Amino acid sequence: MADGVIPSPNIWNAPAVYELENRGVDPDGVIETAMRAVRSPDGACVLDIGCGSGFHLPRFAATAARVIGVEPHPPLRELAGRRVRGLTNVEVRAGTAQALPVADASVDVTHARWAYFFGPGCEPGLRELSRVVRRGGAAFVVDNDATRSTFGAWFRRALPDYDPAAVERFWARNGWSRMSLDIRWEQPTRTDFERVVRIEFTAEQADRILAEHAGTAVDYAVNLFWRTF
């Protein structure tokens, strides 16, 4: 595996449960609608950075001309390859955000969802975006909005040193815009909801969350950071 890759315990250790999580995140398509308002993937070359097991690749492939998924973790890359087998306009490549395996000015849309681009420290990846996105293209980063929502409160409690204002300043300083979006995070059963919570938080944190929160869904605020080139 490439140097500099930081493990992502949720999907690395529990890809099947993370698949449940992916299915339950934003069932109303709020994030995709917001992205389309900036730059449509229709007929474009789309690069999904940190594509994991490839959950979003077929969705992009439905309208994009070409889709490239980049993933550093071999087991996830294998799962992504299986998922897109038979889709002639999709390929999965080994690589990292810091060294994207694509040519200069070769993609129209980049997408990173809870992957690598978490604010200060991701400057090498930002330089790579400037290299690979062609004129008229756009880059999108999806991350938690820790300033509001029930999930945001859980996130802040789990990471008390996290500074959302500093993260927002970082993106603004680098020329990115921000949309604050309200989505749903929902599972079909309480059992699935509990399984998903337990891959996102420590055992102690998850116990507290599940003791105080009933049901199978939670309100969830996210930031969509974006810029055009």
Quick rundown:
The chain has helices at residues 9-13, 15-24, 30-38, 57-61, 74-83, 123-132, 150-158, 164-173, 190-200, 203-212; strands at residues 45-49, 66-71, 90-94, 107-113, 133-144, 177-186, 217-228. It has 229 residues and is an alpha/beta fold. The protein has one domain: Vaccinia Virus protein VP39 (Rossmann fold).
How far apart lie the N and C ends?
Answer: 30 Å
Percent helix, as a range, is 25-40%
Return Rg in Å: 17 Å
Order of helices and strands: HHHEHEHEEHEHHEHHE
What proportion strand? 15-25%
How are the secondary structure elements laid out?
Blueprint: H1 9-13, H2 15-24, H3 30-38, E1 45-49, H4 57-61, E2 66-71, H5 74-83, E3 90-94, E4 107-113, H6 123-132, E5 133-144, H7 150-158, H8 164-173, E6 177-186, H9 190-200, H10 203-212, E7 217-228
Parallel strand pairs: 1-2, 1-4, 2-3, 4-5
Antiparallel strand pairs: 5-7, 6-7
Helix pairs in contact: 2-9, 9-10
